[in-house]
Specification:
This is SMHD1 protein. It comes from Crypturellus soui. InterPro entries: HATPase_C_sf, SMCHD1. Pfam families: HATPase_c_3. It is a single chain. The chain has 209 residues and is α+β, with helices and mostly antiparallel strands. It is 20% helix and 15% strand. The protein contains 5 helices and 6 strands, in the order E-E-H-H-H-E-E-H-H-E-E. A hairpin with an 8-residue loop joins strand 5 (186-191) and strand 6 (200-205). Helix 3 crosses helix 5 (176-183). The chain is elongated. The two termini are 44 Å apart. The model is unreliable at 144-158 (pLDDT under 50).
Length: 209
């Protein structure tokens, strides 16, 4: 901090309560912003920025897939939901050097489990971290850190290339989870990164919530 050996300073919380031996235990919970000041009532020289992490209530995710979300413009909502799911596969296969394969299967055979919509592709696959990023609500595909989709930042679709091949058919970019909970009650993502022998599986379900 560049503090001279003979200089006095205090550490306070944002309410200007000085951190002492008596209240130090309050910091164990984490998430507390601290000021390093010369005096507790010192005027701040500039505005401060604080990052806030929060976990939305699960209803925010589960109920956002209701009919009204996709029918807000008076259109049939199902194509919107399917477009969000297919968009993930378009992103995953966008750099394929060979054939891009995307299959949509509607499964109704009770012997194989509950009815399901399966979107299967031969894309690059996702690591466990990328699966984690996909699960975070309101984390846009254009701003995900450490995700293969983050390279879409600043992306402009070339005119000769059909929109349906460029992973911009979805309206929102964060709608995959809303689409899941519009169509059904859970999502199961099974993925094997192209450069790895490991298969990663992720389940997001209303029942687990």
């Amino acid at each position: 901090f560049g503090i001279a050996s003979g200089e006095n300073f205090v550490i306070t919380m944002t309410n200007r309560r000085e951190i002492t031996e008596d209240n130090f235990s309050e910091l164990v919970q984490g998430g507390v912003t601290l000021y390093l000041l010369q005096t507790a009532d010192q005027t701040l020289l500039s505005a401060t920025k604080e990052r806030i992490d929060f976990l939305p209530h699960y209803d925010t995710l589960v109920k956002s897939g209701m009919y009204e979300y996709y029918a807000s413009e008076g259109q049939n909502p199902l194509p919107f939901a399917l477009a969000e799911l297919i968009d993930n596969s378009l992103s995953a296969t966008s750099r394929n050097t060979g054939i891009r394969s995307i299959q949509i299967k509607l499964l109704f055979d009770d012997s194989q489990g509950k009815p399901a919509v399966a979107v299967i592709d031969n894309g690059r696959g996702m690591t466990s971290k990328q699966l984690n990023n996909w699960a975070v609500y309101r984390l846009s595909k254009f701003t995900r850190q450490g995700d293969f989709e983050s390279d879409h930042s600043g992306y402009v679709r070339p005119l000769p290339v059909p929109r349906s091949l460029n992973s911009d058919i979805s309206y929102f970019g964060v709608g995959g989870k809303q689409a899941v909970f519009f169509v059904g009650q859970s999502a199961r993502m099974i993925s094997k990164p192209a450069d790895s022998q490991d298969v990663h599986e992720f389940v997001l379900s209303k029942e687990d919530f």
